Amino acid sequence: MVFNPSKRDRLVTSKFPCFKLGDSDLKFVDKFKYLGHFITSNLSDDADIQRQIQNMFVRTNVLLRRFHKCLFSVKILLFKSFCLCLYDVTLWKVFNNGTLLKFQSCYNKCLKLFFAYKRRDSLTQLLLVTGLPSFNTVLHNCQHVFNKSWSSCHNVIVVHLKGLTAM
Question: b/e per residue, 21-30, with b = 16+ CB within 10 A?
Fold first, then answer.
């Protein structure tokens, strides 16, 4: 993957020679999945947010198929366990606001779908009845936990990175 410079006037060329690894030609790609996170050539997190949207719908549908007859309290626990674990949400820094709004809409739809609320029912009422957090609260909590872990970590590499980001 070739990353273009942020300033277009510093772009030297858009064509690069083929790279080889042994006898194999290496391909240039616009998107690559690394440790579950999509890295794109334009350094945008939109593809990763789209992946998370797809995962949220898949998880919710699996829960619906397998556990639709469970008690309400069990459903709450299942939703918390399977749909609120957003692994790399704190890594998102560059994204289109519309993409994040799609993810918020996905979260709200999945809540209503799993707990058998109609489309026009109040989301606020659903959140109060279930005790589940709103989308913005989920994002805020994930960011808070990450920041707390980051600031209290004493790993040599992390301490070095913290020093670089403080500059």
Answer: eeeeeeeeee
